[in-house]
Amino acid sequence: MEFNDLALFITGPTYIRPEVRLAAALPEFGHRDTEAATRFDPIFHGLRALAGLGDDPAADGYHLALVPGSGSNALETLIRSLVADDETVLNISVGAFGDLFHNIAVFNGKKHVQHKVTPGQAMDLEVVEALLQTERPAVVTMTHNETSTGVFHENIAAFCALVRRYGALPLVDGVSIFGGVAVDLPAMGCAGYATATQKSLALPAGVGICFVSQEAVEKSRQVKNKGYVTDIVRHLERAAKHQTLSTPSTSLANQMAVQLDYILRVEGMQARFARHLRLRDQAHAFAAGLAGFELFAPEGCRSPSATAVQCPSSMTAADLKALKEAMRARGFLFDTGYMKMNTALEAAGAPPVFRIGHMGDITEAMLSAFLEALAEVLAPFVRR
Ligand SMILES: *Cc1c(COP(=O)(O)O)cnc(C)c1O
């Protein structure tokens, strides 16, 4: 069979380096066998290091569980494990992925309150505080990096401290940013932090990654109706031995071990984070050169892993779909933006937003080549 090998500049899944592609062909293994440790010990070590943690959960008070599935499975595990039946969960949504976290609570029958922020804006801690006072939630969810709008929240520590001041547990969705920026869970104070393999970690999808604090684990022991594969306590019993609760993809485990070793020992975490900031700046410089186009996220809240660009009023979502095909012909997969949001923007008389995914292992040279091609296909729409 022959498949088209496009360079992915979407916001996940992302480009996978040749070395990581090949790692999928490394030997399969038994997930309860001693051989499993050769894969999972470096995986646990690497993921914990990226979260600002050492190897011993008892020492820094944070536990890690790998949940077969994807980011959504990790989010559902946090909701089912940490929101009791008689409690309310408050969801702060700044876009489509904030809505996903909310919907997971709704579909699991949790008592819920949602606060929706206008797409393209960031959360406002004063508004969050007012909601904490009126709604008295037991758990508050929010999104570290809103992939649909390119909004990145730098102020997670302040958010978590505020939520804790009102006696609630802060849960953070870090799916599209973990591995692309420095995360220090003890300093940030999250009770739960969820991410996945196929975004800034530059791996195939297949594992949801859940970090939980010691106090969250203790709370979860009291929560009922957690399900079988969504109970963080059950996951952690296996995770204590660096195993998964159910059978993992052994190909993905091989790839994760290889990739985390690369991130820590070849590229280096700090170099990786610095590269993401340079990619962001490169995308911003490109957008600044397009007369009539605007960055969608506000200054100070612009994502290091994905840039959202609002088109001039002359452009439609249909134009973006045509651009995608023009980019495919040039070997790139272009991201036409979050379609539901673009439909809503157009219904309100506003132009659509496209995204440039620059997360994971994308290099500056790769992004340059992509932006050069994008400049060509966008040229007819740029104001002169
Ligand atoms: C992609 C994404 C998700 C959904 O994750 P899946 O791995 O597709 O289940 C959740 N939150 C954010 C912020 C995302 O970018």
From TrEMBL:
<dbReference type="GO" id="GO:0004760">
    <property type="term" value="F:L-serine-pyruvate transaminase activity"/>
</dbReference>
<keyword id="KW-0663">Pyridoxal phosphate</keyword>
<dbReference type="InterPro" id="IPR015424">
    <property type="entry name" value="PyrdxlP-dep_Trfase"/>
</dbReference>
<dbReference type="InterPro" id="IPR024169">
    <property type="entry name" value="SP_NH2Trfase/AEP_transaminase"/>
</dbReference>
<dbReference type="Pfam" id="PF00266">
    <property type="entry name" value="Aminotran_5"/>
</dbReference>
<dbReference type="InterPro" id="IPR015422">
    <property type="entry name" value="PyrdxlP-dep_Trfase_small"/>
</dbReference>
<dbReference type="InterPro" id="IPR000192">
    <property type="entry name" value="Aminotrans_V_dom"/>
</dbReference>
<dbReference type="GO" id="GO:0008453">
    <property type="term" value="F:alanine-glyoxylate transaminase activity"/>
</dbReference>
<comment type="similarity">
    <text>Belongs to the class-V pyridoxal-phosphate-dependent aminotransferase family.</text>
</comment>
<keyword id="KW-0808">Transferase</keyword>
<feature type="binding site">
    <location>
        <position position="355"/>
    </location>
    <ligand>
        <name>substrate</name>
    </ligand>
</feature>
<dbReference type="GO" id="GO:0019265">
    <property type="term" value="P:glycine biosynthetic process, by transamination of glyoxylate"/>
</dbReference>
<feature type="modified residue" description="N6-(pyridoxal phosphate)lysine">
    <location>
        <position position="199"/>
    </location>
</feature>
<protein>
    <submittedName>
        <fullName>Putative aminotransferase class V</fullName>
    </submittedName>
</protein>
<dbReference type="InterPro" id="IPR015421">
    <property type="entry name" value="PyrdxlP-dep_Trfase_major"/>
</dbReference>
<feature type="domain" description="Aminotransferase class V">
    <location>
        <begin position="76"/>
        <end position="325"/>
    </location>
</feature>
<keyword id="KW-0032">Aminotransferase</keyword>
